[in-house]
Amino acid sequence: MVAAASVVVAAGTVSGVISATGDGQDAPEARPVPSASPSLVPLPAVPSASPSATVSASPSVRPERAGAPASASPRVKRKTVEAAATGLYRHPASRVLDWVRAHPGDPRRPVIESRIANRPAAVWFADWSPDTVTARVRAVTSGGAAQGRVPVVVPYAIPGRDCGGHSEGGAPDLDAYDDWIGRFAAGLGSGEVVVILEPDSVAQADCLSAGQRAERFASLARAGRLFKAANPRARVYYDAGHSGWHTPAKQADLLRQAGAASPTSSDGVFSNVSNFHGTADEIAYDRAVLDALGGTGLGAVIDTSRNGNGAPADGAWCDPAGRRLGRAPTLSTGESRIDAYLWVKLPGESDGCEGAPGTFSPSYAYDLAR
Fold first, then answer.
1. Which range is least confidently modeled, 46-60, 128-142, 158-172?
2. Residue 211: partners with Cβ closer than 8 Å, 6 or more residues away
3. 30 neighbors 94 (Cβ within 8 angstroms)
4. Of 170, 216, 284, 291, which shows the fewest CB atoms inside 10 Å?
């Protein structure tokens, strides 16, 4: 864990909501208006203990940084995302679904199934496996196309990932990474797909030397161009951190260096991945970043998987108590320049306190959902 940074934690080769591993099995982790979650009827504490589940590995949350913008930036009119009419894809091979199927008698099962397992979520590719990545990406994108729905995929293999923290790993060098990205792009198909390009790769780049940052950012810009050339209907979003980290001006400067302002490589930015900041704060922050970034027709997507109660006041990041699910995943936000609310982080996958980092914790999932 890098001190005071926003960090995604991956255990083993799997990271995130829905993860796609090298063994060929794809597994989901998967405001203006205050408080960002759908209304849920409160439920009692779990009536009795049940078998614990030790499945799935996913990214964890991020400590907070000061400097969130105080108010929203002016609204800019923008074309509505065409994908909004089709809906998001829920990948069927899910680790939370594995838990649901394996525990039919658990009293928490109906809540976890209906409020978490049945929601669409992102598919993470967190291992550098060039021989299989094309087929694994294609399995997800073709599954979405068959249903007329939009999958969300997360390439997460940048060299120097997580600055050597819990999620260290990725490709051995940028040449190998560029090759992996090309193979990833070959699996994107021709249907609509959302690409969340390398969480933390831009916001957390301060640990790199100036030369290393320039090389990483050039590689990210190439990645965006490859994705959009391979599939013109792919929507590629770059890492904007979150509203409690860098100022919008600083984040926009980093994003510009990574190619996020160019329509040939980018459709905008993403924020709040694996974090808890409220949707209103993220909307204001993302609009400020986009204003500072410039570019044409850019938008933002927000991870709302666990931000229903906002970020903990004490800055706790490891499975903090009192959190709840945020707004349901959707491509129709009703907010200008906000293209989607997504569940990039799977609610219930531990940050390392409720269980080993990345494992599914039914007790934490139930607490978030109830």
1. 46-60
2. none
3. yes
4. 291
pLDDT band at 45; cut points 50, 70, 90: low
Question: How is residue 102 written in tokens?
Answer: 């394996």
pTM of the predicted model as reported, rounded to 2 decimal places: 0.81
Q: Which of 285, 221, 210 is nearest to 250 (CA)?
A: 285
| Burial class, 21, CB count within 10 angstroms (exposed 0-12 / middle 13-18 / buried 19+) | buried
Tokens of 2: 């890098």
Write phi, then psi, for 143 (nearest 5 degrees): -65, -40
Instruction: Kindly list the catalytic residues.
Output: 162, 200, 351
Contact 359, 54 (CB under 8 A): yes
Q: How many helices (H) and strands (E) does the chain have?
A: 8, 9
On whether the CB atoms of residues 236 and 228 are closer than 8 A, the answer is yes
Q: Tokens in use for 19?
A: 């993860």
Mean pLDDT of 52-57: 32
What's the pLDDT band for 27 if we cut at 50, 70, 90?
A: very low
What is the C-alpha separation between 362 and 105, in angstroms, rounded?
A: 13
Tokens standing for 61? Answer: 């949350």
Distance separating alpha carbons of residues 235 and 9, to the nearest angstrom: 25
Note the pLDDT of residue 358.
74
What does the alpha-carbon distance between residue 273 and residue 346 come to, in Å, rounded to a whole number? 10
Instruction: Specify the higher pLDDT residue, 35 or 227.
Output: 227
The token duo for 334 is: 């009703």
Give the integer Cα–Cα distance in Å for 161 and 281.
27
Question: Residue 192 has what DSSP assignment?
Answer: -
β-bridge pairing 193-197 and 152-155: parallel
pLDDT, mean over the chain: 82
Residue 37: C-alpha distances to residues 51, 163, 308, 315 (Å): 29, 32, 4, 20
* 183 and 230 Cβ atoms separated by less than 8 Å: no
